[in-house]
Each structure stands twice: as C-alpha cells, then as structure tokens.
Write a structure and sequence with these properties.
200 residues, mainly alpha, 68% helix, 0% strand
C-alpha cells in the first residue's frame, strides 16, 4: 500500500485516483473532527467536503517532511473555526441521540459480538453519555480531545493542526479532561462514592 506522501506526489502529478484514495483514508477522521466541533451532521458533511476541496487546491503547499494528517487536520481546523466565527454557533449537545452511522464512540465502545447484551447496552449508554459530555466542551477543548483520544494524534500533531503552542495544547487537554469528568459525573458515570444514593 502506498504511503500518504506517495499518494500526494501522484495527486500533485494529476492522478485523481491517488487523491480519491487520500479522501477514502481520511474522510471519516475529518468528518468526525468537524462534526464534534459544529454539532450538526449535515453541516459537518458540507464542511468536510470543503476541507477536501481546499486540500486538493493546496496540494502544492504540502511539505512531505510533515505528516499529511496534521496538514489536513489544520485545513479542517481552519475551515471549521472560520465557519464558527462567521455564524457564532453556540456549543450545544448533539440533537440526535442515536448512534452515529459512521461509527463514533458508541460503535467503538459497544462491541456486541464480544459481550453479553446487558454489558453491550451499558457500554452504548456510556458512549452516548461521553458524546454528550464532549459536546458540552468549548470548541477548542473538543477539538483537542477528538484529535488526541479519537484520532490518536500526538501533542505535536495537534500543535501543527491547530497552530497552538505545546503548552496551550497540554492545558486544553488537561482542562478538557477535568470538565469531561465533571460532565460524566453529572450524567451518572462518576466515581461511585460521588453518585447520588438511590432515593436521595
């Protein structure tokens, strides 16, 4: 299988097939990042398409010494932040409670094939609660959480994608973890001693 850098080189040389392969490789992570930032699946689809269109037009600016994913996530970051600034969207929970058809945390956490139905149901509930908790974070915290925990990006990758200094990325992740813990506790997933006792 060709590397991302090799595919970019071929796409730069005019291969539409090579660029299509890059889209196939990265459409899900780009959509996932954008969707969690804008909280609107249909809008996320449009913005993700815009991201790939911009990437195609700017392939000549890609530096092969960098990770392609970091370069692409930076375009996704800028495109989404520009949209949020233009429309001043509020941070609100996802309207849909159903599992994201593209997978999402619910699909990752709930593997019914390896668990009994009760355990799988609990994991699905946990995934939904986690999605709601992530949705309540500020956009910059959500972005760092998704890149780090969902996409497996390193601190340096996140710095490159967002243009933020390392200290800010680490601070955002630290604060995001604290807020997520508070939100999860409020949703009933905190440490047992902090949960409300039955009947209280």
């Amino acid at each position: 299988m060709m590397t991302d850098v090799e595919l970019v080189a071929r796409a730069r040389a005019g291969s539409q097939e090579a660029f299509r392969e890059l889209v196939v490789r990265f459409e899900r992570p780009v959509y996932s990042l954008v969707a969690r930032m804008v909280q609107d699946p249909a809008l996320a689809e449009d913005l993700a398409q815009e991201v790939f269109l911009k990437a195609y037009r700017r392939l000549d600016t890609y530096d092969p010494q960098r990770k392609f994913s970091s370069w692409l996530f930076k375009i996704a970051h800028n495109t989404t932040i520009d949209h949020l600034r233009r429309h001043a969207l509020e941070t609100v929970p996802l309207a849909a409670e159903k599992d994201d058809e593209r997978g999402g945390l619910a699909a990752v956490l709930a593997d019914a094939a390896s668990e009994d139905p009760a355990a799988a149901a609990e994991r699905r509930d946990l995934a939904r609660s986690l999605e709601r908790a992530i949705a309540r974070l500020r956009p910059e915290y959500r972005e760092s959480v998704v890149l780090f925990y969902v996409e497996g990006a390193s601190y340096q990758d996140i710095c490159e994608a967002t243009g933020l200094p390392l200290g800010t990325v680490k601070t955002n992740l630290h604060r995001a973890r604290k807020e997520l813990a508070q939100h999860m506790t409020a949703l009933g997933w905190g440490p047992r001693e902090t949960r409300a006792a039955p009947g209280s």
